[in-house]
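Customer escalation, tier 2.

The customer says the design service returned an amino acid string that "doesn't look like it belongs to this structure." They asked us to rerun it and document both sides in this ticket. The original structure tokens are below, unchanged.
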């Protein structure tokens, strides 16, 4: 099912005093699968998973960017997913040969 989903990683700068409220509001948006508070140059990272390319604009530009307390977003579209789970399955099938 997840194979035909489009994934975007959204880096979010927020009003520092509102990080928990902003994260909770973003997590409620349909299409947002996870929101992480992180250290570093941004305050939050959201994972957005949708079926259609057009939905990315609906979720990110029309919903995430307009949450009160969001100052800036930067979006990265995932081309290919690599995960330990996928690697474990490949090795279990003997594909390393």
């Amino acid at each position: 099912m997840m194979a035909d989903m489009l994934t975007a990683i959204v880096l979010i700068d927020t009003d520092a005093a509102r990080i928990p409220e902003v994260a909770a509001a973003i997590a409620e948006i349909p299409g947002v699968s996870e929101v992480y508070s992180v250290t570093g140059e941004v305050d939050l990272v959201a994972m957005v998973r949708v079926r259609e390319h057009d939905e990315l604009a609906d979720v990110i530009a029309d919903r995430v960017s307009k949450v009160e307390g969001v100052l800036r977003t930067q979006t990265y579209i995932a081309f290919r997913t690599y995960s330990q789970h996928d690697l474990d399955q490949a090795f279990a099938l003997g594909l390393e040969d």
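Tier 2 assessment: The sequence is consistent with the input. The chain has a mean pLDDT of 89. The domain at 2-92 is CATH 3.30.70.920 (Alpha-Beta Plaits). Sent an explanation to the customer and offered a walkthrough call.
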